[in-house]
Amino acid sequence: KSMSPSPRIFLGCQISFYHSIFVSFYNRFSWKGGHLYIFSPPFYYNTKNGTVKWHSIRRQKREWIKFAAACREGEDNSKRNPIAKIHSDCAANQQVTYRISGVGIDQPPYGIFVINQKTGEINITSIVDREVTPFFIIYCRALNSLGQDLERPLELRVRVLDINDNPPVFSMSTFVGQIEENSNANTLVMILNATDADEPNNLNSKIAFKIIRQEPSDSPMFIINRNTGEIRTMNNFLDREQYSQYSLAVRGSDRDGGADGMSAECECNIRILDVNDNIPYMDHIEENALHSSLLQIRVIDLDEEYSANWVAVIFFISGNEGGWFDIEMNERTNVGILKVIKVWYNYPKYFVFLVFFKIKG
Ligand SMILES: [Ca+2]
Ligand SMILES: [Ca+2]
Ligand SMILES: [Ca+2]
Ligand SMILES: [Ca+2]
């Protein structure tokens, strides 16, 4: 237990000519750890040697009061009582009543701090939650028997130390993203978002992201930035014609992914968008028994069915100079029917039409 004078804080009165409230404390932990801060605008605050000074013309009258404090959320701090003691020099020649007010005293959460009106000792009475109240400001007053202020009100600021009592929380249980097939490696797909209610800029709220599962699992296709939650492509091999959808399980762990952290998981569904990277081809040509139809032309395209990348167009290159034929495409089946639209009566018994056509899709 360190009682060295280095973390001592002392306050001197600047305003009052006659009296001053002096407060000092010995922090049981290192002052640099900042377990408890006390300051107020009129005080001169020196972080270098942990001294707070309230310049006073009557500095020679200052009085030192022991102040032991550490306020950690989620645990019983009462064994350190009194956590503070305030004192006015006026007590030397008259009766002084000490009063405190503020959040945690006469404002919710009520009654966490209480004061002995005669001695000025301030006690903590219950367990505190940093996520509800990250710090308390105890407004202290010293009153005479008529209820008049003998001193300028003093602010004691009590910081509540964080413990890691909150896991990360993803903003959604399932995130949805999409990315074009064949995209370059390192293309941004989506950004995951998670928060942690513990103290900001503290390891307790520092979340590290990690992909823990991918479906289909053949080969890893995505990487995640452990700090930002950005998911990017690992390579340029995404192929919608192979897998049109990926599912990832991502874990977010506080304490920057440390073994002592808490974690949460979310799911990411990534849709692979089609690119027109397949050339259509003719499956087969069938003779058709229908009266006016000659041929059925079935077109195959591996791109996304029914999309513009898939629907084929067949057009004549040559052989239809007389406008005898037409091709009727069925957009649901990608089957084209070559029809005779101009009947030609004087044709020879055997006649071969050479019709060339091109398929687009
Ligand atoms: Ca946490
Ligand atoms: Ca906490
Ligand atoms: Ca295509
Ligand atoms: Ca494609």
In short:
Residues 83-170, 171-282 form the Cadherin domain. This protein is mainly β. It has strands at residues 21-22, 26-27, 44-46, 51-53, 68-69, 84-85, 87-88, 97-101, 113-115, 121-124, 135-143, 154-159, 169-170, 174-180, 188-191, 194-195, 208-215, 222-224, 230-233, 245-253, 263-273, 281-287, 293-300, 313-318, 325-330, 335-340, 356-360.
Strand content: 35-45%
Bound molecules: calcium ion
Question: Overall pLDDT, averaged?
Answer: 78
Order of helices and strands: EEEEEEEEEEEEEEEEEEEEEEEEEEE
Largest sheet: 4 strands, mixed
Unreliable segments of 5+ consecutive residues: 1-68
Tell me how many strands there are: 27
CATH architecture of the largest domain: Sandwich
Radius of gyration from CA coordinates: 40 Å
The structure class reads mainly beta
How many helices in DSSP terms? 0
- Determine and state the CATH class of the largest domain: Mainly Beta
Which fold name corresponds to the CATH topology of the largest domain? Immunoglobulin-like
Tell me roughly what share of residues is in helical segments.
Answer: under 10%
The order of strands across the largest sheet is: 14-21-20-17
